[in-house]
Amino acid sequence: MTSIERTAYPQFKRLIIAHDHLFFAPTREEAAWAAERMDSGGHQLPLLLALKSYQRMGRDEYPEMVVDFVRRAVELPEGTMPLWATGWTIERQRTEVRRRVGATFDQAEACRIAEGSIRKEAAAKNRPADLINIALERVVGAGLELPAFSPLDAMARRSVRR
């Protein structure tokens, strides 16, 4: 397996320092956007976490340790906990975030683009990390949400073995 650290695949460090938290500070405009879309702080909080994560990572993933930081940044009451949405609410939140960041969720298309670019570049490059980086660039360039790392890694390893 290719080491994720050797690629440009966005990931969080195991230990997040204070400086890293600053990326998650929503702007006033982002906080207002979330308040317009969700009726409670418990629903605004995961919407903002997803937004900031998409802006940095290209997908909805964030470390638990930034939840309280974001809550304080938008001045939600102490003890406000994110209400992890299910069903219709989570799909609505994901749709709102993707619309705002200009990303489309189409994992089949993202994988098709990644695999095509990996196959094309495998003739000139033989390091899986390089192939994954090229695939990431093409998927992002197409405005698509990133697929998980493991399918990209499998595609790259298959192409290198050929």
Automatic annotation (TrEMBL):
Domain DUF4158, residue spans: 1-157
Domain of life: Bacteria
Protein name per UniProt: DUF4158 domain-containing protein
Species annotation: Actinomadura miaoliensis
